[in-house]
């Protein structure tokens, strides 16, 4: 009988690799929050430890007076540092917490630590804490500016704009050939039907309508098939690149991975470590917390897609093929405007002719 080996969670793996004194301090904490919060807190504690700050405690109670107290996620006594870990920080709440701590410890330093998926929002959190830390899933701790620069660099490296532009040009050329050969094929079809009709007129008992059910495969048809195949090949490559782009961005701030299989099927998979790190809640319509997860994901996706495709948009904006399409489109629009103007100017004359024709007496 085969025994299924249980896979360690991300939280369990992090706890297992912690230095013994830090692990003992953490194990002694009576109150634990969600796995996602604990991972964030442990990453911060390990970061302080690795940088030589070892007097670390968890869930430190700060007496605010009037019988009230608050618990702070991490306190490092050497630095006089208080770290509040928030996965979705609220400016007002964080500011109030900082004020309460500073009232008791005026010389203390207050730090807000948040997850990397909140990195873009962290850029706007200056002032709510002495420092804002963006914590990555791999345990690295960055300032919001450092994080934004690193993320932008990563996003810009995802898409090979030269390669994708090549596929798009290949598709446009194949589409142009396809339309050209379709037009030539239609002309060829019409020509041979006229010839066949002429022959039929000289054959007794033959009805020309019978030709309507006959298909003609001319010399241009193989060129049409070739152009269609080239279009499909290029389209598949473009879709593949788009899926790769989306997958790379999803991997940065969601638990989902997206794949394009050989049979043109798109599959959605889950990275369970990312799921636990984010404290992901599925089914966004069911509860506010789940809806917030998807809202953050969609906001990040929009922003990061713009960054990742910026270079491509700039290239396409000035490419000869796009300029040619724009010129042709503008020419067609101008021609349509002229045609409409001619029709409008002819309407009164046409109406007069119809009125005159209706008023003429009928010939008996």
What do these coordinates show?
This protein has 364 residues and is of the alpha/beta class. It has 2 domains: 10-150, 3-Layer(aba) Sandwich (Trna Endonuclease, Chain: A, domain 1), CATH 3.40.1350; 159-325, no CATH class. It has 11 helices and 8 strands. It has helices at 10-16, 20-27, 35-50, 91-104, 119-122, 144-158, 161-200, 221-253, 272-278, 288-317, 320-359, and strands at residues 56-65, 68-76, 81-85, 109-115, 131-135, 141-142, 256-260, 266-270. The strands form 2 sheets. The protein has a 6-stranded mixed beta sheet. Helix 1 (10-16) runs parallel beside helix 3 (35-50). The radius of gyration is 35 Å and the shape is elongated. The model has no long low-confidence stretch (mean pLDDT 84).
The gist of it:
With 364 residues, this protein is α/β, with parallel strands linked by helices. The protein has helices at residues 10-16, 20-27, 35-50, 91-104, 119-122, 144-158, 161-200, 221-253, 272-278, 288-317, 320-359; strands spanning 56-65, 68-76, 81-85, 109-115, 131-135, 141-142, 256-260, 266-270. 59% of the residues lie in helices and 13% in strands.
């Amino acid at each position: 009988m085969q025994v299924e080996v249980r896979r360690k969670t991300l939280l369990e793996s992090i706890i297992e690799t912690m230095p013994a004194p830090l692990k003992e301090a953490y194990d002694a904490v009576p109150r634990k929050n969600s796995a996602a919060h604990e991972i964030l807190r442990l990453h911060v504690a390990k970061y302080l430890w690795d940088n030589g700050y070892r007097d670390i405690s968890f869930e430190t109670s700060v007496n605010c007076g009037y019988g009230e107290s608050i618990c702070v996620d991490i306190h490092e006594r050497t630095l006089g540092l208080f770290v509040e870990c928030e996965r979705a920080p609220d400016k007002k709440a964080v500011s109030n917490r900082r004020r309460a701590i500073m009232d008791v410890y005026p010389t203390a330093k207050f730090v807000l630590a948040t997850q990397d998926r909140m990195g873009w929002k962290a850029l706007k959190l200056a002032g709510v804490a002495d420092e804002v830390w963006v914590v990555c899933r791999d345990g690295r701790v960055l300032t919001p500016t450092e994080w934004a620069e690193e993320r932008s660099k990563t996003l810009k490296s995802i898409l090979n704009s030269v390669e994708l532009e090549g596929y798009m040009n290949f598709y446009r050329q194949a589409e142009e050939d396809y339309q050209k050969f379709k037009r030539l094929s239609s002309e060829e079809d019409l020509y041979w039907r006229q010839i066949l009709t002429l022959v039929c007129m000289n054959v007794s008992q033959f009805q020309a309508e019978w030709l309507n059910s006959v298909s003609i495969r001319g010399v241009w048809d193989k060129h049409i098939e070739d152009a269609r195949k080239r279009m499909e090949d290029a389209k598949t490559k473009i879709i593949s690149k788009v899926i790769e782009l989306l997958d790379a961005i999803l991997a940065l701030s969601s638990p989902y991975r997206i794949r394009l299989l050989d049979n043109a099927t798109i599959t959605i998979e889950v990275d369970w470590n990312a799921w636990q790190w984010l404290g992901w809640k599925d089914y966004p319509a069911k509860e506010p917390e789940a809806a917030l997860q998807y809202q953050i994901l969609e906001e990040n996706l929009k922003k990061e897609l713009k960054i990742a495709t910026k270079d491509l948009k700039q290239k396409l904006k000035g490419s000869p093929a796009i300029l040619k399409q724009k010129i042709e489109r503008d020419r067609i629009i101008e021609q349509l405007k002229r045609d409409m103007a001619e029709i409008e100017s002819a309407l009164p004359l046409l109406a007069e002719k119809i009125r005159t024709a209706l008023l003429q007496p009928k010939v008996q």
